[in-house]
Amino acid sequence: QHNPHWWGNRNTIVHLFEWKWEDIAEECENFLGPRGFAGVQVSPANENIVSPGRPWWERYQPISYKLITRSGNEEQFADMVRRCNEVGVRIYVDVLLNHMSADFVGQAVGTAGTEADPAVKSFPGVPYSAEDFHPSCEIYDWNDRYQIQHCELVGLKDLDQSRDWVRTKLIEFLDHLIELGVAGFRVDAAKHMASEDLEFIYGSLSDLKIEHGFPHSSRPFIFQEVIDHGGQEVTREEYNSLGAVTEFRFSQEIGNAFRGNNALKWLQSWGTDWGFLSSGQALTFVDNHDNQRDGGAVLTYKSPRQYKMATAFHLAYPYGISRVMSSFAFDDHDSAPPQDAQEELISPEFDADGGCANGWICEHRWRQIYNMVGFKNAVRDTEISNWWDNGDSQIAFCRGSKGFIAFNNNMYNLAEVLQTCLPKGVYCDVISGDLINGSCSGKSVYVGDDGLGFVSIDSDDFDGVLAIHVDARI
Ligand code: LAG
Ligand code: CA
């Protein structure tokens, strides 16, 4: 179940973290569709515990499978899926199959008003009772398979997916979402479930719906969250035959490189040579909603110059199933998403340039990022060629005869005549500007009969990338 069922030449997913369904529907119509995004990963859609202060992570504590959360209700969810599919943008839902809510001080109530008693593993909204869960224990040894898969991840009540009843309820939940027109799922905490159980569950799901525009016999796309940096007991290889797997090593290494800890010339061998999964099995990202909060090498919107360069490389290099993060501003791990005095999520507001204003970061609306989504569409199905580097952190390469990109992560200027592989013409650099009504608001590159073009990226340029492609020819 590795096929994401993209429409046309599209091939980038965006994670609209904590967005409301109505806002996503509008974003599909007004921005994502027109800009060529292939799909959206949405926040968990099922009822979660209401936690004081409303941290984002309350959504990782299920109370039932009713489709009522702060993002909206079932009707709004269904409307979003329909409208996004209509403009060729697929919806993938973040699903929690591993666990339910953790213990709660006081009466646990969900976002649909359902009560539960996590302390005795009672979730009447499903219903689940104690026998549907593994006996309580703590994960303290990450090399002990039993603990990883049977004990409680940060205290979350651990479901027993080998039980018929649990399987039935999980399959019903996922089938309900398929019925509403989704294209697939991000499976949270997959490593904490036995792959045999997941295989049974995925294999039991219905096909995607023809009435929502999917070809006959399409299987739901599955991408599983398995954090595998190597050296642990449970590995990504146990899951990658069932569906794609999040490639955390990609995130780590791309952060390292663009933070300057690794010369960019080494990226020539990017991909499986770096110990990554094969391209069609790897869900790739610069940062995700968890590791953007962890610090370390991972790049986030907080280091915008490096972040845009890493994202440009991510989307230019032919490797992986790409996902772009779209965040809200946060100070610490527990920061709540933008909300009003009634603790309702607030809708993003846009400034004159189309960027987000009120607490939403909307990386996907940064020109350097959405234009690289367009680049990736333009170069789809081409190979990489004509790698060039300066022996350090200035690099460039072609994608067939469709696109060319150059990076400068050195402290001195790049000014070179390089092979762009493009047909003779004048091209607009989609990083420093946009092509609007035939005129380019950024740098232009003149490509001659021989494909050569003069490329310059000064070390003090606003961005350290230059990208041209056949769909942005002046
Ligand atoms: C995931 N993937 O495997 C999610 O990507 C990740 O965001 C989830 O953790 C985790 N697994 C469980 O679905 C998040 C937060 C945690 C939070 C947890 C449950 O990163 O911080 O735990 O969701 O809401 C919080 C507290 C813990 C506490 C726990 C239970 O931070 O201290 O033990 O709630 O009360
Ligand atoms: Ca488990």
Automatic annotation (TrEMBL):
Its EC number is 3.2.1.1. CDD domains: AmyAc_bac_euk_AmyA. Coiled coil: none annotated. GO terms for cellular component: extracellular region. Residues 11-376 form the Glycosyl hydrolase family 13 catalytic domain. Its cofactor is chloride; Ca(2+). Pfam families: Alpha-amylase, Alpha-amylase_C. It is found in: Secreted. GO terms for molecular function: alpha-amylase activity; metal ion binding. Keywords: Calcium, Carbohydrate metabolism, Chloride, Disulfide bond, Glycosidase, Hydrolase, Metal-binding, Pyrrolidone carboxylic acid, Secreted, Signal. It catalyses: Endohydrolysis of (1->4)-alpha-D-glucosidic linkages in polysaccharides containing three or more (1->4)-alpha-linked D-glucose units. GO terms for biological process: carbohydrate metabolic process. Residues 385-473 form the Alpha-amylase C-terminal domain. Gene3D superfamilies: Glycosidases, Golgi alpha-mannosidase II. Belongs to the glycosyl hydrolase 13 family. Monomer. This is Alpha-amylase-related protein. It comes from Drosophila pseudoobscura pseudoobscura (Fruit fly).
